[in-house]
Amino acid sequence: xxxxxxxxxxxxxxxxFEQELLFKELGKKALIVTGKTSAKVCGALDxxxxxxxxxxxxxxxxxxxxxxxxxxxxxxxxxxxxGADFVIAIGGGSPMDTAKGIAxxxxxxxxxxIEKLFGNKNYxxxxxxxxxxxTGTGSEVTPYSVFxxxxxKTKLSMPRRIFPKYAFIDLKYFKTMPLAVRNTTIMDxxxxxxxxxxxVRSNHYSELFAFKALNLFRQHKNDLMNDxxxxxxxxxxxxxxxxxxxxxxxxxxxLPHALGYPITYQFGLAHGMANATFMPEFLRxxxxxxxxxxxxxxxxxxxxxxxxxxxxxxxxxxxKPPVKEEHLEDYARLISSQEEKLKSHPIKLSHEDIMTMYRxxxx
Length: 363
Ligand code: NAP
Ligand code: FE
Fold this sequence. Notes:
- By secondary structure, the chain is α/β, with parallel strands linked by helices.
- The protein is built from 17 helices and 8 strands.
- The strands form 2 sheets. Strands 1-8-5-4-2-3 form a 6-stranded parallel β-sheet, sandwiched between helices. A two-stranded antiparallel sheet has the order 6-7.
- The mean pLDDT is 97.
- The structure holds NADP nicotinamide-adenine-dinucleotide phosphate and fe (iii) ion.
- Fe (iii) ion binds next to helix 8.
- The site of fe (iii) ion has 5 residues, from helix 8.
């Protein structure tokens, strides 16, 4: 058993300004990594710039991180940030994950970047500050980064382990999330919790966080379905997302993530909803004692009720992707090559089992 959480988490109103000296301590030059507009819209970018200006920390801004970022974006970002002492990520999982990859290349150079990010030898990184603005990935407290690989036509988890040095969480930065982003990222955190519990690497510490996240979900799931989220509920979902991140930082994720990646790649189904699509099938193939614990924690009477709720919730914001039988063999082969995800499941599953999960969930 082990539990490792090196990220210092700061949470509260105006937390960036309260902890502004931490920026000063990290160096003289920063690279800010964001998506197109949300960092500006939610106010976090202006707050960060105000602090950097106050302490005359030079900075550049890499503000073109795409959702489900392609690996190559790490090189673009590292080029722009040449000479930076630390990286500040503002946004959802996409900018936070990209910032971790960039931080490796800023320390070790951009040549042979695939080897540095995905090869066998380990590479560390310059410090990363993470300022999350979505209620989902928990990337502010995980060592993971997920990138799109256009050659393999799917998404891949980078094998390096880069925990952010600091995570700054302020409710106000999450208030501008559009409904679809909020709903899908809540489903991501929901799946992180469940995939961490039904996982051979689960332990009593990771479970503390995973079950706490599911309890918060249970409290607010009706408000979520009716779109009546109060500030208190939003705060609980923000916390649930970080708790679930702490849980998967110990265990990793499992099959729903692996099954969802090719669908996100091919049809653009949002990451959290892709996971949720496979969650009922994941329960079907999981040990029933663990499934019962998940049902109890989430407040569903049965697997059928769980599946019905999930299907209706996904339908609020997403259309069913037009997956066809002929796609499935390729997807299943990709999963069979992702040993880590298969090994994390308590029951050994065959290629045919994976095919059945795909058929039941998406055809
Ligand atoms: P995201 O891809 O980072 O962002 C999705 C959209 O939400 C973007 O259009 C973004 O706009 C917008 N947005 C973000 N925050 C907003 C705010 N406060 N107000 C308004 N709009 C906002 O979404 P995500 O779901 O958080 O991240 C998904 C990625 O994380 C996937 O690639 C997934 O595989 C990965 N992931 C990583 C981990 C991990 O442990 N590292 C775990 C699970 C998933 P802008 O483009 O303008 O910013
Ligand atoms: Fe995820």
